[in-house]
Design brief:
The complex is a heterodimer of chains A (367) and B (272).
Chain A: H1 2-14, H2 17-22, H3 27-43, H4 51-76, H5 84-101, H6 106-131, H7 135-158, E1 163-164, H8 167-171, H9 177-180, E2 183-184, H10 186-194, E3 211-212, H11 213-231, H12 233-243, H13 245-250, H14 255-281, E4 284-285, H15 292-302, H16 314-330, H17 341-364
Helix pairs in contact in A: 3-16, 4-11, 4-12, 4-14, 4-15, 4-16, 5-6, 5-7, 5-14, 6-7, 6-14, 11-12, 11-16, 15-16, 15-17
Chain B: H1 2-7, E1 19-28, E2 31-41, E3 46-51, H2 57-64, E4 72-77, E5 80-81, H3 87-93, E6 95-98, H4 110-114, E7 121-122, E8 129-130, H5 132-145, H6 162-175, E9 180-184, H7 192-207, E10 211-216, H8 219-225, E11 228-233, E12 236-242, H9 248-256, H10 259-268
Parallel strand pairs in B: 3-10, 3-11, 6-9, 9-10
Antiparallel strand pairs in B: 1-2, 1-4, 4-5, 7-8, 11-12
The chains are: A mainly alpha (367), B alpha/beta (272).
Keywords (chain B): ATP-binding, Nucleotide-binding
Organism (chain B): Thioclava dalianensis
Domain ABC transporter (chain B): 19-259
């Protein structure tokens, strides 16, 4: 059928680059990132876009982003997890207790914390699947349960305080610590400083000692999540489970297993953020991760993930988180009152949702 | 394809049924949904199952596709008695059903829908991945065989027309080795042109030697592609007729249960 094949090829070519781009869910987030960057180029102090300024806003973006990527996978799979913020506090408490109270090395404490968080993910997932209730309600309950458990648990562990100190001393110079705290590539950065390629203090030490490890985790997780979504059968199952669970399960997709796994992944992302921030801060407290669930969902939505499931991308959540970090930190470089941040955020969320809806209708030809 | 034409002329002596249902009864509590239905399907033929709403068509095809277990009766698949525990069992044996909801996800691309739950992979261990290139090629090729040129394999199913979606579902079933393809009212929600596309697709599938069970309550659609016609009424078969052995009016009357329809038709001037 040579005639037929040329016809098809022509039609493939007819699709312009722009039309192809429009199909990508992360387009909105990239456009948003460009806009926000331009905005701060004009309004913010030049220090924002120096190396140290960039690290400054990428660090909170990375911490949020790890949560947001987990949240976006779960949302693409058709479920919500409102308990991830509380999970950060809960996992922080577990980690603190394992390290400080039990004196375990990180090689045991970190997997232990992840297992605890994962179990909570399984509980969330199984409750949602078995009761058939919306995950919104089930995980809203866990938002309070886990926050409460963190408060009660911390007071029990410490004998009355809601803060557990002494993590830094307990971790000490554990060989695993550099993977979860501090900066990477310090050698490279001091070399660059010696050559005068990056800014230095008067002493000759670089102003930016290295790349904070959470940024590397953030990039790594975004790449792995994207690969899984777009290039593995599991990714197809995630889209299918979120798109239409009946159709998916009639076609042989193990929908319940997919959803439970996604709850576990999301909980483990929260635990990872907890571990890194607790080691960095040297202590944990019951307010850790407060309202992070909303921020993570907002970042995922800005990244093009649909609230109704079945559509979205991890790279979108990646850019959504960077936008978030840029706005939060960027406002401190401007003369604008920082409290505008929430207004800005709400407005951006609204814009993103409207934009996503339009795009979805264009992509799917829904009328 | 000449021999295929010979097969689907429906000569009973030449081919053995691939799937045979004998005296199927299905009771739901004290409701008798099927009261002894017999039906068979041969390779390369299109056997139409006709009946009005409530005649038991849905119950019957759900029994055939493994969703329901018959209360009584025998299912023979390739001469072996079968006892399907689930639709998955039936599917693995080679009985594919395209239900009205099609099991398609509009937001996903045609390729992703095509291979949903049965993704081809390459690589091993943690690097085992969805072979997207191969999947795209297969999908484009299979759709072209069915007469649909996709704009691209990443085209979302939501952008396809109802008839094209139906065709994707059929092509998917055929590609994954269906020997019997059950189509549940594939034309009921379609316009005129889309209907003829789907009927043409049914013809293509039949020519590949697959037995097609075509459920419909539209006599004209059935007569357009059917080789044999079985009419269900109130949970019973009212008989099977070959192509050319029965007139559209007679079929219509059988479906509606005889006399009442004749009267109705009179008052409507023979338009139904």
């Amino acid at each position: 059928m040579p005639a037929d094949s040329t016809v098809t090829d022509e039609r493939v070519r007819q699709e312009t680059v722009l039309a192809r781009l429009m199909k990508r869910p992360e387009l909105g987030a990239i456009a948003g990132l460009v806009l926000v960057t331009i905005f701060f180029m004009f309004t913010a102090n030049g220090a924002m876009f120096t190396l140290s300024g960039v690290m400054n806003f990428l660090t909170p973006a990375a911490q949020l982003g790890i949560l947001a990527i987990g949240a976006s996978l779960l949302m693409i799979g058709g479920e919500f997890d409102l308990s991830i913020g509380s999970m950060v506090a809960f996992a922080g408490m577990i980690f603190g207790a394992l390290v400080v109270n039990l004196g375990l090395p990180l090689i045991v404490a970190i997997p232990g914390t992840l297992v605890f968080a994962g179990l909570m993910g399984v509980v969330n997932g199984q409750l949602v699947i078995r009761t058939g209730l919306p995950s919104f309600i089930v995980t809203l309950a866990f938002l309070f349960i886990l926050r409460g458990l963190s408060l009660v648990g911390l007071k029990y562990i410490t004998g009355g305080s809601t803060q557990l100190r002494g993590v830094r001393d307990a971790v000490g110079d554990d060989w695993l610590a550099p993977f979860f705290s501090g900066d990477a590539f310090t050698g490279l950065f001091s070399t660059l400083a010696k050559w005068g390629w990056i800014d230095t203090f008067k002493s000759g030490a670089p102003k930016v000692p290295g790349v904070p490890v959470e940024i590397l985790w953030f990039i790594g997780i975004a790449l792995v999540a994207t690969w899984v979504l777009l290039r593995t059968p599991a990714g197809n199952w995630i889209f299918a489970a979120g798109g239409d669970r009946n159709a998916a399960s009639n076609s042989g997709v193990p929908v319940n297993r997919v959803k439970t796994t996604l709850f576990v992944v999301t909980a483990c992302c929260a635990a990872l953020v907890a571990i890194m921030t607790v080691i960095d801060a040297g202590s944990t407290d019951a307010r850790r991760g407060f309202q992070k669930e909303f921020e993570a969902i907002i970042a995922a939505v800005i990244g093009g993930t649909l609230l109704t499931g079945g559509y979205g991308s991890a790279i979108g959540a990646f850019f959504g988180s960077i936008i978030f970090g840029m706005v939060v930190i960027g406002l401190t470089y401007t003369t604008i009152d920082q409290d505008w941040f929430q207004v800005f955020l709400g407005g951006m969320l609204l814009l993103a949702v409207i934009f996503n809806n339009v795009i979805r209708k264009r992509v799917t030809g829904e009328r | 394809m000449e021999q295929a034409t010979a097969i689907h002329s429906g000569d009973p002596a030449t081919t053995k049924p691939i799937l045979e249902m004998r005296g199927i009864k299905k009771h739901f509590g004290n409701v008798i949904a099927l009261a002894g239905v017999s039906f068979d399907i041969r390779p390369g033929e299109c056997h139409c199952l006709l009946g009005d709403n409530g005649a038991g068509k849905s119950t019957f095809i759900k029994t055939m596709s493994g969703v329901h277990k018959p209360t009584e009766g025998e299912i023979l698949f390739e001469d072996r008695p079968m006892n399907f525990a689930s639709p998955r069992d039936a599917m693995e044996a080679g009985i594919a059903t395209v239900f009205q909801d099609l099991a398609m996800i509009p937001l996903m691309s045609v390729t992703r829908n095509f291979f949903m739950g049965r993704e081809p992979t390459k690589g091993a261990g943690p690097f085992k991945r969805f072979d997207v290139k191969h999947a795209n090629e297969v999908c484009i090729e299979e759709m072209r065989k069915m007469g649909i040129n996709l704009r691209g394999p990443d085209q979302a199913v939501g952008t396809l027309s109802g008839g094209e979606r139906q065709t994707v579902a059929i092509a998917r079933a055929v590609y994954f080795g269906a020997k019997v393809l059950i189509l549940d009212e594939p034309t009921s929600a379609l316009g005129v042109r889309q209907t003829s596309n789907v009927l043409a697709t049914i013809d293509k599938v039949r020519r590949q030697g697959i037995g097609v069970v075509f459920i419909s309550h539209n006599v004209r659609h059935a007569l357009a592609v059917g080789d044999r016609f079985t009419v269900l009424n109130r949970g019973k078969t009212l008989g099977t007729a070959g192509k050319g052995e029965i007139t559209p009016n007679a079929l219509q009357d059988l479906m509606a249960g005889g006399q009442e329809m004749a009267q109705l038709e009179g008052s409507l001037g023979g338009t139904v």
